[in-house]
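Field log, afternoon session.

UNIT: design team B
ACTIVITY: writing a sequence onto a fixed backbone
BACKBONE:
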């Protein structure tokens, strides 16, 4: 059955994809089997945490950690810590509670196609297209968080990684004020410590001079690894094309594809289809301490 444009790919990886995983992530059947068993054993020893021990679930953490089980466990612990720290924001997170942010406001979007390296491309409209009075920075984060939960189910995304495009076209003080230091710190902490996806590149586009105020908020929290993957292009889409082939970009970004005519409204049903995974994720993390 053909994949719908607004759906994710959950089929087992192809031979071509497994060759990339072998080359970049050390993944072979033997390495995978050993790492899964080791991570299961480590989880059983970690009496203060609860996560699923199913192989497909453990691969979400093992792949970005190159199949080093101890590193995967450390990532799971950081995720549990992030969920604990941000409990009021993320507790019992449900797609239906963010439905209006998805369907009425085109703030977060995902290209229906992958780029030339097989990576998912996430678009975030941080400029004039974002009205913070309609979609608060907390809602923006929750939408982003829900999309990441669905993306992590794709073997191709686990292996090839993701690219984030931040479009600051028309940025004004209204948006700058919403991008508070607390939001900045939360977002960067999530990306660097608690997101089990391979973030390959971040592209910042169409940023006006006022963007310097935003960058001043984010910069102190960004470590060297992430900083080396952030690229500033302004209005020059040719600089973006050095990283993403124009054949895989819409006309909005100087690409050969048709202008984007879809958004969160089209992607929302896909997110809701994976409500079971989202509900499970809500139960994972540190165990409640007895009173």
């Amino acid at each position: 059955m053909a994949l719908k444009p607004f759906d994710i790919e959950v089929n087992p990886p192809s031979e071509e994809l497994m060759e990339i995983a072998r080359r970049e992530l050390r993944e072979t059947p033997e390495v995978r089997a050993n790492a899964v068993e080791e991570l299961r054993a480590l989880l059983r020893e970690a009496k203060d945490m609860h996560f699923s021990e199913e192989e497909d679930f453990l691969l979400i953490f093992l792949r970005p950690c190159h199949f080093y089980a101890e590193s995967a466990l450390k990532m799971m612990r950081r995720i549990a810590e992030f969920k604990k720290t941000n409990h009021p924001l993320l507790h019992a997170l449900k797609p239906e509670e963010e439905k209006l942010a998805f369907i009425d406001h085109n703030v977060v979007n995902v290209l229906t196609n992958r780029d030339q390296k097989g990576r998912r491309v996430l678009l975030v409209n941080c400029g004039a297209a974002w009205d913070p009075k309609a979609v608060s920075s907390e809602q923006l984060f929750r939408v982003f968080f829900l999309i990441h939960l669905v993306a992590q189910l794709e073997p191709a995304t686990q292996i090839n990684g993701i690219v984030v495009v931040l479009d600051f076209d028309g940025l004004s003080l209204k948006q700058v004020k919403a991008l508070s230091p607390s939001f900045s710190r939360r977002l960067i902490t999530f990306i660097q410590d608690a997101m089990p996806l391979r973030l390959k590149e971040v592209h910042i586009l169409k940023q006006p001079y006022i963007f310097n105020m935003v960058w001043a908020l984010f910069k102190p929290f960004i470590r060297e690894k992430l900083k080396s993957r952030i690229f500033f292009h302004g209005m020059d889409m040719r600089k973006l094309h050095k990283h993403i082939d124009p054949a895989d970009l819409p006309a909005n970004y100087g690409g050969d594809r048709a202008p984007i005519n879809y958004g969160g409204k089209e992607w929302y049903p896909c997110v809701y289809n994976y409500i079971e995974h989202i509900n499970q994720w809500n139960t994972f993390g540190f165990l409640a301490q007895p009173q």
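LOG NOTE: The chain has two domains: 15-91, 95-273.
NEXT ACTIVITY: expression trials, pending approval
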